[in-house]
Amino acid sequence: MARVVLTDIEGTTSAIDFVHRVLFPYARDRLPNFVRTHAAEADVRAALDAVRTETGDADDEAAIATLLYWIDIDRKATPLKTLQGLIWQSGYAGRDFSAHVYVDAYDQLRAWHAAGVPLYVYSSGSIAAQKLFFGYSVFGDLLPWFRGHFDTTSGGKREADSYRRIAAAIGVAPSDILFLSDVEAELDAAKDAGMGTVQLCRPDTNPESHGRHDCVSSFRDIVP
To answer: Which tens digits make up the pLDDT trace of 78-95?
Structure first.
């Protein structure tokens, strides 16, 4: 039995629809003006330079076009996630929206936290975006429940080495960690790294599942 819980967000603790219906359009609409206005700031500059280095874009306007394209194809690129997080920060702070969390996920995460189970997050969204998500949820500020956050700077979510790095960062053996996700390929990678796995198979997400992992429709059915 695992003694640490590592959870995905989108499709796991929270509806995919919220991300695609609310967060992505909000960031897409505001990204060009945000980048032009804040291009001299260190974190924005670093993200733009990373895009231009990867793509060979000649200037910031070309990088903006690339970023918009990446949003449209839902590419999990670290500089894009950084910029989206910065844009979402203003939206959360202005109460333009609150992050969706399933009731069963809220109840079980609260129970695990109260029982002293260490909780961590691993999502393709940036660490800053994760903190905003749980800090401005429909249930209020859930951020104190989590001991740490991991994003694509730890590696891709479909690569076993990413989960080994996370276990090392937490300071436990991979076998001590239970990873929760709706995506089978991510769970395959976590299992290859030695972690326990449970797949969230919610009726509103219909994830691909071939029986390689325990499949549940609610957090209430998970025992770490």
So the answer is: 899 899 989 999 899 999
